[in-house]
Amino acid sequence: MAAASPASTVRTGAVLEVEGLTMGFGGLIAVSEASFAVRPREILSIIGPNGAGKTTVFNCITGFLRPTTGRITFEGASITGLRPDLIVKRGIARTFQMIRLFPHLGVDENVMIGLHGRTRAGTLDSLLHTPRHRREEAWAREETYRWLRFVGLDAHARLLARELAYGDQRRLEIARALATAPRLLILDEPASGMNPAEKAELVHLVGRIRDAGITVLFIEHDMSVVMGISDRIIVLDYGVQIAEGVPDEIQRNPRVIEAYLGREDEE
Amino acid sequence: MQIALQQLVNGLTVGAFYALIALGYTMVYGIIRLINFAHGDIYAVGAFLGLSVYGLLAFFRVGDPVLATLVALVVSMGCTGLLGVLLYRVAYRPLLRARLSILISAIGGSLTLEYGLFLVYSPSFLVYPHLFGRAGLTAGDIQISWLQILIFASSIVLMAALYLMVHRTKIGMAMRALAINQDAARLMGVDVSRVIALTFFLGSVLAAFAGVLTGLYYSQISFLMGFLIGLKAFTAAVLGGIGNIPGAVLGGFLLGILESLAAGYFSSRWKDVVAFAILIVILVVRPRGLLGERVVERM
Amino acid sequence: MLYRFAPAAAAVLVAIVLPIAGTPYLIDVGTLVLVYVILGLGLNVVVGYAGLLDLGYAAFFAIGAYTTALLMVDYHWPFWVTLPVAALLTALSGIIIGTPTLRLRSDYLAIVTLGFGEIVRIAATNLTFTGGPEGVYGIPHPRIGMFVLRSPQAMYVLAMAFALLVLVGSYNLARSRLGRAWLAIREDEAAAQAAGIYPVYFKLMAYVLGAVFAGAAGSFFAVKLTAINPSSFTFIQSVTILMVIILGGMGSLPGVILGAAVIVMLPEALRAFDQVRMFAFGIGLIALMLIRPQGLWPSRIGQIERRVVAASAASIAAGTGADTVASTE
C-alpha cells in the first residue's frame, strides 16, 4: 500500500492535492473551485467563517460526499468519488465535527474497530475462531492499547465511550482514526467545546501526531489553536479560497480580516 | 380487449381501496418515518365497525340503504379515527426515537387488532348486507355497477378534500412543516404531538371509509382482511413515492389496475406475487417512487 | 456469581435429563424448543447483531425444509448430502434478496423481507413440484450408517447437535472482527465507515449467515416431521421467531434459549387459551417494547435499545421544551 506514492507525488511534493473542487446541493453551491495541496508532514489548517464550506471539503475528501466537479489526488492516485471505507484503506482518516463515537461500546472497542481495515479475518474465521483470527485479535488488542496510551486514555479502556469526559471523547475519536494507520489525518474542529486546558493538550497531541510522521489537515475556529500549531493556513470564504500562507501572513492579510470581521455577527 | 377493459374497471375499484389506505401509510411515514404495520388492520376494524352499525340499524328497523350507509360510514370513520389516535398514543409515541422498537411495537399493534377482531367478532368470514346489488351500466360485455361508480367517485372526492386540507389550511401547513423538519416546526410553535395524532386520525378515517366500502363491494369480511391489503397499499405508497399524497393515489390506482390485468391474463392465484414483485423492483430501481422527490436512501 | 450460573446449570441439567427420563411428548416439545433455538439464533444474527429487521425469516426456513424434503423424496438423496445444498440455496436466496435491498433504509428492508416471505409461501402453495397446499410428505428418516434416526430421543440428540453448533458459532461471531463491525454499524453507520467498514457488505453477511442458520433448521424440521406444507412458513411463523429473540433479549444468547423455551412451552401449557394466544402476542410485543425493550435476559445490545427508548420517553415526559433543547443542541 505504501508503495502507491510514485512520480507525481515526488514531482508536486504534495500528499494530497485538491483541484477545482466544486460541490453543489441542488441550487446551492457550497464549495466553488477550491484548490489546495497538503505537503508531507505538515499541519495545514483550513479556516473561514461559518458556512464557508470547510466541512463540505472534508466530506468530499473522505468520500462522504461525491464532488460535483473537481479532482482529489492522494499520494499520486485519484481518490475522487471513492467509497469512505476505501479511502480509509488508502491512508486517510478523519474525525467529525459533532463527535461520532460508538457511545455504548467500550473505549477499547472503539479503537479496535478502527483496526478493522488492517485485519483480515473473514466470515469463517469469525464463525470458527480460527487460529488466524486468534492471532489477529491478540495483535489488535496490543495495537489498541498502543494508541490508547498514545492519546492518554489507557486508564479508561474499560469504560463505555459515552462515560468519558467531553475532551476525552475527542481524543478517543482521534485514537480511533489513528488506529487505521493513516498517513493523513483530517480533524474537523477538534477543539470545539474544549476548555483551555483541554485545548493545550490537544495542541500538544497534534504536534506528537505530526512527529509520528502523519500529515494533519484540520478545520478549526479557535484562532489560538490554529495560530499555535499550523505550519500553513488556507482561508475559505463561501466556498472560495481567498488566502493561503503561514500564520503570520494570514493574520496580516486584508481579505482575511475583512472576511472575518465583516461577518463576525454570524458566529 | 374486452377482458382488458373489464379488468380496468375492476382495477380502478380495487385501486381506490389501495389508494385510500396508502394515504394513511404515506402521511404517517412522511411525518414520523414509521411504517405503520397496523394500518391495514385499522382498515379491517373500520369494516367490522361498519358491519356492527348496519346490524344495529337493522335492529332498529332503519331500512333505507343510503341513510344506513351514511350512518355506518360516519360512525365507523369516527371511531376508527379515534382508534388510530389511541394506537399512536399508546404504542408509538413513547418510542418515536427507537427505530427498531417502534417497528416491533407496530407489529404488536397489528396482531392485537387482528386477533382482537378475531375474539370480538368471529374467526370466520362475516357477511355484509347486500344493499346495492349488481345493477349498473352495461356497455357491450363490460359491466360497471353503481357501487363501483360510487366507490370511485367518493374516493376521489375524499382524496381531493385531503389534498386541499394539506395544502390550503393552517393545520395542513403544520403537517407539511413537520414532514420537512420536526425540530424547526416545533420551534415555530407547532404542537408536534397533536399534529402527529391528527395525521393518524385522518389516515384511519380514510382507511375506515375504504373498509366499509370493501364490505359492501365484496360482501364479506374477515379479521385478517387487512394484512394483505395493508401490504399492497404500502406497496402503492412506495410505488407513488412515499410521503407524497398524490403519489399514494396514483400508486394505488396503478397497482389496482396492474394486479387486475395480471389476474385477468394469468391466474388470480399469482396476483399477490405481482404486487410484491412490483414492491421489490421499485425499491431497488427507484426507491423514491414515481412522484417522490426526496432521496430516501440512507438518512 | 452463583446466581448467574445457576440458570445455565439448570438448563444444561434439563437438556440432559429430558431425553433420558422424559415422555415422548415431552421430548418432542424439547426438540421443538431446539428448533426455535436454532431459528432464534439465526435471526439474532440479523436483528440482534446487525440491527436489520427481517419480517420474512420463515422464507429461509421454508427453503431449507423444502430443499431437504424434495431431494430426499424425489431423488432419494441421503439427509446429510441435502444439508450443504440447503445451505447453499438459502445463502444464495439471501444474497439475491439482500444485495439490492440492504442499501435501503432499514424499515424498507423490513417490508421487502415481508414481501419476500409471502412470495415464497405463495409460490410453495401454487407450484406443483413443491406439492401445492399439501406440501411434501413421506420424508425418510435420516440415517447414520445402518442406524436410522427415528425415535424422539434420536431426533432430540440430532437437534441438540445442530443447536450446539449454531450456539458456538453465534458466540464466536459476537466476539470477532465481524461482530465488532456489526456493532459499529448498529451504533453509527457514518462512524463505522470512517473506521474503514463497508456497511453494505457486512449487512449482507449477517443476512446470509442468518439465512443459512434458518436453512439448517428447515432441513432438520423436514426430517423431524416427515411431512411439510406451506402453513408452517407463514408471516406468523416469522413473527413467532422474532418474538423468540425479542422476548429473550436481542443479541443475547441465553436470552434466545429462554425465549425459545417460553414461546414453545407457553402455548403448550395454555392450550385451553389458544384463542387468545395471538392477541396476547400482540399486546405482549407492545408492552415489551414499552416496559422492557431489552428483553428478559438482556445483552449489551439490548441495553442500547433500552437507553434509546428511555431517552425517547424522557424527552416526551419532559415536554416539548426539553425535547427541543435536546435535539437542537
Automatic annotation (TrEMBL), chain A:
<protein>
    <submittedName>
        <fullName>ABC transporter ATP-binding protein</fullName>
    </submittedName>
</protein>
<dbReference type="GO" id="GO:0015192">
    <property type="term" value="F:L-phenylalanine transmembrane transporter activity"/>
</dbReference>
<keyword id="KW-0067">ATP-binding</keyword>
<dbReference type="GO" id="GO:0042941">
    <property type="term" value="P:D-alanine transmembrane transport"/>
</dbReference>
<dbReference type="InterPro" id="IPR032823">
    <property type="entry name" value="BCA_ABC_TP_C"/>
</dbReference>
<dbReference type="InterPro" id="IPR003439">
    <property type="entry name" value="ABC_transporter-like_ATP-bd"/>
</dbReference>
<dbReference type="GO" id="GO:0016887">
    <property type="term" value="F:ATP hydrolysis activity"/>
</dbReference>
<dbReference type="GO" id="GO:0005524">
    <property type="term" value="F:ATP binding"/>
</dbReference>
<dbReference type="GO" id="GO:0015188">
    <property type="term" value="F:L-isoleucine transmembrane transporter activity"/>
</dbReference>
<dbReference type="GO" id="GO:0015808">
    <property type="term" value="P:L-alanine transport"/>
</dbReference>
<keyword id="KW-0547">Nucleotide-binding</keyword>
<dbReference type="Pfam" id="PF00005">
    <property type="entry name" value="ABC_tran"/>
</dbReference>
<dbReference type="InterPro" id="IPR051120">
    <property type="entry name" value="ABC_AA/LPS_Transport"/>
</dbReference>
<dbReference type="Pfam" id="PF12399">
    <property type="entry name" value="BCA_ABC_TP_C"/>
</dbReference>
<keyword id="KW-0813">Transport</keyword>
From TrEMBL, chain B:
<dbReference type="GO" id="GO:0042941">
    <property type="term" value="P:D-alanine transmembrane transport"/>
</dbReference>
<keyword id="KW-1003">Cell membrane</keyword>
<dbReference type="GO" id="GO:1903806">
    <property type="term" value="P:L-isoleucine import across plasma membrane"/>
</dbReference>
<keyword id="KW-0472">Membrane</keyword>
<dbReference type="InterPro" id="IPR052157">
    <property type="entry name" value="BCAA_transport_permease"/>
</dbReference>
<feature type="transmembrane region" description="Helical">
    <location>
        <begin position="42"/>
        <end position="60"/>
    </location>
</feature>
<feature type="transmembrane region" description="Helical">
    <location>
        <begin position="273"/>
        <end position="291"/>
    </location>
</feature>
<feature type="transmembrane region" description="Helical">
    <location>
        <begin position="142"/>
        <end position="166"/>
    </location>
</feature>
<dbReference type="InterPro" id="IPR001851">
    <property type="entry name" value="ABC_transp_permease"/>
</dbReference>
<feature type="transmembrane region" description="Helical">
    <location>
        <begin position="100"/>
        <end position="122"/>
    </location>
</feature>
<keyword id="KW-0997">Cell inner membrane</keyword>
<protein>
    <submittedName>
        <fullName>Branched-chain amino acid ABC transporter permease</fullName>
    </submittedName>
</protein>
<dbReference type="GO" id="GO:0015190">
    <property type="term" value="F:L-leucine transmembrane transporter activity"/>
</dbReference>
<feature type="transmembrane region" description="Helical">
    <location>
        <begin position="195"/>
        <end position="217"/>
    </location>
</feature>
<feature type="transmembrane region" description="Helical">
    <location>
        <begin position="66"/>
        <end position="88"/>
    </location>
</feature>
From TrEMBL, chain C:
<feature type="transmembrane region" description="Helical">
    <location>
        <begin position="204"/>
        <end position="227"/>
    </location>
</feature>
<feature type="transmembrane region" description="Helical">
    <location>
        <begin position="239"/>
        <end position="266"/>
    </location>
</feature>
<dbReference type="InterPro" id="IPR043428">
    <property type="entry name" value="LivM-like"/>
</dbReference>
<protein>
    <submittedName>
        <fullName>Branched-chain amino acid ABC transporter permease</fullName>
    </submittedName>
</protein>
<dbReference type="InterPro" id="IPR001851">
    <property type="entry name" value="ABC_transp_permease"/>
</dbReference>
<dbReference type="Pfam" id="PF02653">
    <property type="entry name" value="BPD_transp_2"/>
</dbReference>
<feature type="transmembrane region" description="Helical">
    <location>
        <begin position="32"/>
        <end position="50"/>
    </location>
</feature>
<keyword id="KW-1003">Cell membrane</keyword>
<feature type="transmembrane region" description="Helical">
    <location>
        <begin position="154"/>
        <end position="174"/>
    </location>
</feature>
<keyword id="KW-1133">Transmembrane helix</keyword>
<dbReference type="GO" id="GO:0005886">
    <property type="term" value="C:plasma membrane"/>
</dbReference>
<dbReference type="GO" id="GO:0015658">
    <property type="term" value="F:branched-chain amino acid transmembrane transporter activity"/>
</dbReference>
<feature type="transmembrane region" description="Helical">
    <location>
        <begin position="278"/>
        <end position="297"/>
    </location>
</feature>
<feature type="transmembrane region" description="Helical">
    <location>
        <begin position="55"/>
        <end position="73"/>
    </location>
</feature>
<feature type="transmembrane region" description="Helical">
    <location>
        <begin position="79"/>
        <end position="98"/>
    </location>
</feature>
